[in-house]
Amino acid sequence: MGKKQGRKAGNSKNKSTSPPPKERSSSPAMDQSWTENDFDEMREENFSPSNFSDLKEELRTQCQETKNLEKRVEELITRIINAEKAINEWTEMKTMTREIRDKCTNFSNQLDQLEERVSAIEDQMNEMKREEKSKEKRRKRNEQSLQEVWDYVKRPNLRLIGVPESEGENGTKLENTLQDIIQENFLNLVGQANIQIQEIQRTPQRYSSRRAIPRHIIARFTKVEMKEKILRAAREKGRVTHKGKPIRLTADLSAETLQARREWGPIFNILKEKNFKLRISYPAKLSFISEGEIKSFTDKQMLRDFVTTRPALQETLKEALNMERNNRHQPLQKHAKM
Question: Which family is this protein grouped under (predicted)?
Answer without folding.
Answer: Belongs to the transposase 22 family.
